[in-house]
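Example record for the data management plan.
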Amino acid sequence: MKNASQSNLSLDDFNNVIAKYSPLVKRIAYHLMARLPSSVVVDDLIQAGMVGLLEASKNYKAELGASFETYAGIRIRGSMLDELRRNDWAPKSVHRKTREVAEVVRTIEAREGRDARDDEIAKEMDITLDEYYKILQDASSARMFGFEELGFDEEAIESGMIDNSSRPYESILDERFRKKLVDAIATLPERERMVVVLYYDSEMNLREIGSVIGVSESRISQLLSQAMIRLRARMKEWVQD
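Corresponding structural encoding:
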């Protein structure tokens, strides 16, 4: 992790920031850990989060309107997600199959003018329904647990379509993207929409959501993966294929 001499902070200021906001770093790290495979080490996330906290303390501008804690939370989470992406455990085949499902969903929905059904997606891909659900399960296991999993187009970011931040999580602050995402979520099938809202807005875990909706945790995992794939298909102009 960078030390205080590498920033514009005095040593006292640096120590004060660490003392005051390290609980925030740990809270975000453990919140992510609840949704990640056991192979992920929480200390690695905390270390990455501390880097994000230091960056936040260097770059925060009160005139932008957000509180420091809000801004720091975004930078901390973004730094942790960067760390996870650098150590992506998901085989390339999982990402490839996820993109294939998104393209099939896009094709079916454009042709039929309605939500693509599970059996239709499996038939279009020439696989069984069980094989399709296995793809969803694999996608769930590899998921980065944020809207960054939609796969933002770097060229769009650089051209200004998305906020000029290099961190996908921070780009949700861009008003145009936010509106498009909200509109796309509103078009999801009711159960998928409820899962997305409970997971990302209410920050419930899969088991808790399963208890609310009355289905198994594995089914909630499938529904969440399917919702994210459907959003990917419906936000094609924002997504890198």
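Summary line stored alongside the record: The mean pLDDT is 78.
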